[in-house]
Design brief:
By secondary structure, this protein is of the alpha/beta class. It contains eight helices and ten strands. A seven-stranded parallel sheet has the order 1-10-9-6-2-3-5. The N and C termini lie close together (10 Å).
Length: 259
Amino acid sequence: MEIVIVPSPEDGGRIAADIVCGAMENGARTLGLATGSSPLHTYRELIRRHRESGVSFAAMSAYLLDEYVGLTSDQPQSYAHTICTELVDHLDIDNARVFSPDGGASDPSEAARRYDAAIAENGPIDVQILGIGLNGHIGFNEPSSSLASRTRVKTLTERTRADNARFFADPADVPHHVITQGLGTISDARHLVLIANGARKAPAVRAAVEGPVSAFCPASVLQLHPHVTVIVDEAAAGELELAEFYRYTTEHKPASQGY
Ligand code: GLP
């Protein structure tokens, strides 16, 4: 696991964009996308590179991490809609190859199984972008999620519903249920890139990176993965015990070693 502490979220966005673009140059064809505020600087940087430097996403497919049960892709609060307005609509990626769990399905559990099978068939995902929730969730895998879990229906904690209420007219409108890639599904990706900014995320980052591997902190599953980059700003790194060592390893990184 490589932990990169950056001065600002903008710097983190540039590094994550470097990872995505570098992977595409090396043949990556499948991206894993996350919604939420954490990846927004990365997405803005990818859009900028597409517009100003001609970086093309025409050959790419993308899979979203999660979706609310009961919301269809034409509803603005759905993650399928959100990822279009934040990223997809601004790139040359074919919208028909941007996939998300079907939140409007009459049988959400079956939709989850289908989605997992589609990722297994068309994957592996080359680069998976991740944020982290205040309680250490990734995707919508709340504490107690099996570290081997597959895409399925989950129930949100009240805290996560409250954190996401800002996107809804009424907090009561936040769905209770979601379809999320499981921790095992996420771990099938070749390269996991977790982005966290701000002091509120510091305890979750510490638990994920330096705590025990435990379903209590779902993001700690990253410790079991062979290729992980954690990009945190100074505030989110504020509780890391080995922060000095992480800075040292970045400064002394062998020139030949990319992310
Ligand atoms: C939601 C999403 C996660 C995201 C998390 C953190 O719960 N399902 O994928 O990582 O929020 O969001 P933010 O980046 O806005 O802090």
